[in-house]
Design brief:
This protein is 23% helix and 43% strand. It is globular and about 45 Å long.
Length: 181
């Protein structure tokens, strides 16, 4: 572990910002791997009526600089792997340590669409209705809406070719992360 903590400022338009504090495990130019041993959510994340991430569950996150999505390895509260969750978002702005010592600050904005691949191996595009509402109400501008759709389509096409998720995601199961942390 790098011994550093990351404060991820995660904006959800129009006016919500959550700050997630995670342990930085890998700080490589091509991928940043962070660990959240106890996810601070108030309700389960549901996909097709099934809980895929519970409050207090561990999650491993993969942030790829310059890429319009990140990937979370989700687990239930007992540590059982439930699947991969890709947030379509603006590329993360990574602020260096600087005067903050060992605390890093990252910033990103959620673009509403998500992609889920559960243990069944089926890829699902999620929250299209959220994106449509954001566009219809002007919460999200048309250009960012197009970028979100294009990124979701890139993920779906890459998965169909066998190129998604990147290999590093399977190389860091929870057991390895916990051992490293």
């Amino acid at each position: 572990m790098t011994g550093r903590r990351v404060h991820i400022h995660y904006r959800r338009l129009p006016d919500r910002e959550d700050v997630y504090v995670q342990d930085l495990l890998v700080d490589h130019p091509e991928v940043k791997i962070t660990f959240q041993p106890s996810t601070p959510i108030s309700a389960p994340v549901m996909v097709d009526g099934v809980s895929v991430l519970e409050p207090g569950s561990p999650a491993v996150w993969f942030t790829f600089p310059g890429v319009w999505h990140d990937i979370g390895r989700f687990h239930d509260r007992h540590g059982r792997f439930t699947g991969l969750y890709a947030n379509v978002l603006t590329p993360c702005v990574l602020h260096p340590d600087g005067a903050t010592g060992h605390t890093l600050r990252w910033e990103t904005t959620d673009l509403f669409l998500d992609v889920w691949r559960g243990v069944d191996g089926v890829l699902r595009l999620l929250d299209e209705d959220d994106l449509e509402r954001a566009l219809a109400t002007g919460v999200l501008d048309v250009e960012l809406g197009r970028a979100a759709r294009a990124e979701a389509q890139r993920i779906l096409a890459a998965e169909a070719r066998g190129d998604w998720p990147p290999a590093v995601v399977s190389e860091w199961p929870l057991e390895r992360v916990v051992e490293r942390a």
